[in-house]
Amino acid sequence: MSKLVDKEIVAKKMPSRIIRNQIFKGLFFLSTLFGLLVLGVLFYRIITQGIGYIDLDFFQNFASRRPENAGIKAAFIGTIWLMVVVAPVSLILGVGTAIYLEEYAKKNKFTSFIKLNISNLAGVPSIVFGLLGLTIFVRALALERSVLAAGLTMSLLVLPVIIVASQEAIRSVPKELREASFAMGATKWQTVLKVVLPASIPGILTGGILALSRAIGETAPLIVIGIPMFVAFLPKTIMDTFTVLPMQIYNWTSRPQAEFQDVAAAGILVMLVLLILMNSIAVFIRNHFQKRY
After folding, report:
1. pLDDT per residue over 135-145, tens digit each?
2. In Å, how far are 35, 50, 92, 223, 262 from 265, measured between CA atoms?
3. CA–CA gap between residue 113 and residue 270 (Å, rounded)
4. Rounded Cα gap, residues 193 and 127, in angstroms
5. pLDDT digits over 156-202, tens only?
6. Is the distance from CB of 281 to CB of 226 less than 8 angstroms?
7. Cβ of 214: how many Cβ atoms within 10 Å?
8. What is the largest CA-CA distance in the chain?
9. What are the C-alpha distances in Å from 186 to residues 17, 19, 170, 178, 216?
């Protein structure tokens, strides 16, 4: 091999390659630094604008036309109601689909075609799912602008992400564990239930929580299906009208009064804390329960 390498040519070109490497390394570092700087400026502005409005009244008051009386009670409770629908629907359907595709479906072109399209759906713009929810749930099924219609629409949005994450988690379980279970006389379903699922739960829950975090922060599908921005009451059932944090923040930012920009910043801070908390839970689950084989 040494005869095929001209050491003189390598020695001649090495300094220029090192210089180019340092240049691109510096450019990548500056790009990262610029992104962090912009993020830091935005975060600082949101904190300075909104921290003064965050108090107990902010969580207890409904939306108001006066910024000093505006609160997020309806939006905060509405977000919880939305997650009550989205979480079970998306997790049950997503994990069930992943188990079928990985453990029961035949390995053929049709199955590969389905997996490919599920992966592609994970990158579809959220407004497309809003149009789908408007057509099926709001109009065809006549669910109107209810918690159920919005929850099913947002479930469609995050379902591909949960399926892909669950597939990867199930696929990462070593085949030796399955074979050992079969050797002990376990059935296919017993192996999936007692061996595969417990080993893949950290990856499934991590992907599921991150997908639910996306559902909390999405606004476009809810705007398309007609979820109101101003609500001064709490939903009592999943068939009631409601609003959520992103919609309320969007409503405040669209108002001309400068004070409402500060109120919107306070709402953004609340949603950021909620998202950071959910992502922290996902990291904890991954680090604490992950098993290495």
Report:
1. 999 999 988 88
2. 20, 5, 35, 20, 5
3. 41
4. 36
5. 999 999 999 999 999 888 888 888 888 888 888 899 888 898 888 88
6. no
7. 14
8. 81
9. 59, 61, 18, 9, 40
